[in-house]
Write a structure and sequence with these properties.
- This protein is of the alpha+beta class.
- The protein folds into 2 domains: about 280 residues, no CATH class; about 60 residues, no CATH class.
- Helices cover about 40% and strands about 25% of the residues.
- The strands form 2 sheets. An 11-stranded antiparallel sheet has the order 2-3-4-5-6-1-7-12-11-10-9, sandwiched between helices. Strands 8-13 form a two-stranded antiparallel ribbon.
- Strand 10 and strand 11 form a beta hairpin.
């Protein structure tokens, strides 16, 4: 029996509000003024980040927009794109939300959506409709060999395949195309990705907690796009929760299947035994957090130590100092001077980042 972890790793949502321009007028006027203020302050300080509290949730308001969206709010949990007007194009929604991978793994889909939907209702008016534009379903495992004889052991509805090497070893297989609006699948070495990017090291805590070999974890991930979701009549978060088993089984029973190559004709080959277990992985999915947000933040801090140590020793060498104590005494003075020139303080900048990491909210109500 294979050891595995499943979860929704990414979700993008479009939100429609009843009488949007009427109910959202107050917050839209506020965002317009704050964005103008942010641009002025950014002109005098290129490192400036404009933080705002909106109905108990803290965000950085970006000074740029996106196509169709005048405002972008960002924190560790969500990225929210907001339109100034409701378009006459029926497929366009005035609010677009991306829920972060960190939140989906620490809080689960149900609570992550509850938190942001309540905030949207309070801030912009009652949600009339939520639509999923993309969702990624993943499975982590450490005892399945996905790459051996890969060219001869996968069949399905995909039109294109790809392979990526790291050194002499395969580190990723791809099926389908990312530019399409249907399905795109990646099977890749998750352990290697974390070591190379030095991001999301908190996954090792989840893997250990679920008895996976942290040195051999691979991720099977399906990116499900708008065309596929419409075809399966999946519109809302509620639809998705009800359909996860059927979606996953379609992806792993029809769209992509791993077989034991026992016949010249691949359609006559038996399905790989481990893949059969994978096909049933989402039969009893529970939307739950797997790692505390505080643990994520703490482990992410630890990954910064090598970079900080490297920069500190480079600074020390240029100052011709060997002693670590003397290095940090000098560094303290120089950092204080740096922030003085920037018209801020270390304490102020640290507070801003703490606010964005925690959104200024208390998580005890989970």
């Amino acid at each position: 029996m294979i050891k595995r972890i499943i979860n929704i790793d990414t979700i993008y949502l479009l939100v429609n509000i009843k009488n949007y321009e009427v109910h959202a007028k107050k917050i839209l006027d506020f965002l317009k003024k704050e964005k103008e203020k942010a641009k002025l302050l950014l002109n005098s300080n290129s490192n400036y980040r404009h933080l705002i509290d909106i109905n108990g949730m803290n965000f950085e308001l970006l000074t740029n927009g996106a196509k169709g969206y005048a405002y972008i709010l960002h924190n560790s949990g969500y990225e929210i794109k907001i339109s100034q007007f409701k378009s006459s194009i029926t497929s366009f929604s005035p609010i677009q939300i991306r829920v972060s991978s960190e939140y989906l793994w620490s809080k689960g889909l149900k609570y992550s959506w509850k938190l942001i939907s309540e905030w949207v209702n309070k801030t912009f008016g009652n949600i009339e409709e939520n639509k999923i534009s993309r969702v990624d379903l993943c499975l982590h495992t450490s005892n399945v060999d996905f790459v051996k004889d890969y060219q001869a052991t996968y069949k399905g509805a995909f039109k294109k395949t790809g392979v990526i090497y790291t050194g002499n070893n395969i580190s990723c297989l791809t099926f389908g195309t990312r530019k399409g609006k249907n399905i795109y699948c990646r099977i890749y070495n998750k352990t290697l990705e974390i070591k190379e990017t030095k991001r999301k090291s908190w996954f090792t805590f989840i893997w250990q907690d679920n008895n996976l070999d942290i040195e051999k974890v691979w991720n099977l991930e399906f990116e499900l796009k708008s065309e596929f979701l419409r075809e399966f009549k999946i519109k809302s978060v509620e639809d998705l929760e009800k359909s996860l088993k059927d979606i996953w089984q379609y992806c792993t029973k029809e769209w992509l299947v791993k077989v034991n190559r026992t016949n010249v004709r691949i359609e006559r080959c038996q399905i790989n035994e481990e893949w059969q277990e994978i096909q049933n992985a989402y039969n009893h999915f529970l939307s739950k957090g797997m790692v505390k947000r505080e643990k994520q933040i703490s482990m992410e801090a630890d990954t910064l130590i090598p970079c900080i140590a490297g920069n500190a020793t480079s600074y020390s060498a240029r100052k011709n100092i060997i002693s670590m104590c003397e290095t940090f005494e000098n560094l303290y003075k120089d950092v204080c001077q740096y922030f003085l020139i920037k018209n801020t303080t270390f304490e102020n900048e640290a507070k801003k980042k703490i606010i964005l990491l925690k959104e200024g909210r208390c998580d005890t109500d989970e």
